Task: structure prediction
Amino acid sequence: MAEPLLRVENLVKHFPVKGGFFSREVDHVRAVDGVSLHIDAGETLGLVGESGCGKSTSGRCILRLIEPTSGEVWFEGKNVTAMQADALRLVRRDMQIIFQDPYASLNPRMTVGAIVGEALTIHALADTAKAYDDRVVDLLETVGLHADHRLRYPHEFSGGQRQRIGIARALAVSPKLIICDEPVSALDVSVQAQVINLLEDLQQKFNLTYLFVAHDLSVVEHISTRVAVMYLGRIVEIASARDLYTAPKHPYTEALLSAVPIPDPKVKRKRIVLEGDVPNPIKPPAGCHFHPRCPRAEERCKSEAPLLREIAPGRVSACHFSA
Amino acid sequence: MAGSIPAFPTANALSDAAARALPVTPGAEAWRRFRRHRLALAGAVILGILVFGVLFGPWLWPVPINEIDFGAKLKTPSWQHPFGTDDLGQDLLARMLYGGRISLAVGVAAMLIAVIVGTFVGAVAGMSRGRVDIALMWITDLFLSLPQIPLLLLIIYLFRDSLKVWVGPEAGVFVLVVAVVGGFRWMPVARLVRAQFLSLREKEFVEAARALGATTSRQVVRHILPNSLGPVIVAGTIDVAAAIIAESTLSFLGLGFPPDIPSWGRLLFDAKDYLDIAPHWALFPGGAIFLAVLSISFFGDGLRDALDPRKVM
Result:
């Protein structure tokens, strides 16, 4: 098999919990606890899970915006996790990120033109002032904004427009991979559709690859080629979007999907309601992280952590019983 | 494909407005916003008059500051002496115009020292975190806990004479007062800047800059520092005011400038024994300090708002 665009091996991020006298490290939050996945060029991998399951942290660790505790990230055959600052700066021309909150992600004291054009300055991508200006205008028009907007400040724009500015900023370096960290969760439903369509159009136009982090299952189903489901720092299932949504193999995925509202009041469906809450990621349960809430759990699940194993071509699940 | 992406109807409306208001430089925009702030504008006008007065006043009112005339001592204001005279019959207007230079210069110079040192310490602490941060904050707390007035007096007592020999009496005291007053006022700025840095460095727009490959210094200079300066500007104006008052205090205690260099604080010091028979002597320098401090504070408020593009004005 050819090397995928991005390959993540056993990524781990533990945040220290300080306490006691002299702020010793007393424990740590296992935000990401051994995530492995790969993304092929041109596809969209959806990453879903509840709040706090580590999906955003995984995305940031891949870009090394957060330093992972251990594990490896390979991008185009290069080990990103082992890179020094200079090499990392170079690889960031190929990997970009779009943020969730369009209000916090734009510097309020810079004009839109300066925000979008900053990458051109950092990587010396424009030789002349004219080339710089042309490129900024080009980027703004690509995301559906007007050339004159480059002289305005972010607070003069609506949430959807701001998200477009954030997208233009990510596009400035002509990246290959964009990590979309819940890019539509903070937007109105009508604007969500516009931004999703924009992302799809851009993907076709520039042959982009997305890691699409979200908790909205309908959005993920719409945009993703494949979907990875996360629970408490671990990936429990990866499958093509169609397979996952029609025939989930992991009990957690099943429960998650049964919670998606169906826009038809006549359709009745059996809802799987999980018992209890998500366990504390400081002390995750032994064995399978999901076993205290799993309807199918047996004795074995309490001690033996299930590995992600291939149950069908291109389809992995971390459950002892999925087949 | 780009053609198929619909632009917002609102986006077009916005751009029309933008096209009409296009040739606005950031400086002109800031000035427009500043003018909306009535009190700040009043402060700027008063401050402008004060600065103009102390810079050019000695030419417009060419009376020597040390012309002793015992025939006209402790005179109340008149056409001949608009601000009256002191116990030696020296013209108070001339002395105040000259002394204002010292007071305002001390204020501005001490503020610059406080803001530069404070911003530097706060920025280093906020960016490095860990041990460096803890050490710098210990030093800041240490300075905050020092009894300032006794220490000021001690430092001035110890170094005044050697500095006088080195750079001359007037410049020597000036350097000393500025260094001492500024050196004791950087801590609030450092704490302010550190707190701003700690919160701003985690903001998503800084993360975005990091993702674009911005170096740490670029993140600080372009993203973190400009967003942390609002409170610093206000703290800076308060520092100017506080430094003017601190200089007055030192001079009032007789440890600032010598009697032949009549800063506003020194004038107050000299006037205190005659408050009952010649209140005008204390009222004019006191009023000048009051006006300067107040107008600088309003000016700072207006400046902060004018430089913040988020504020709708």
The CA atoms of residues 40 and 299 of chain B lie 4 Å apart.
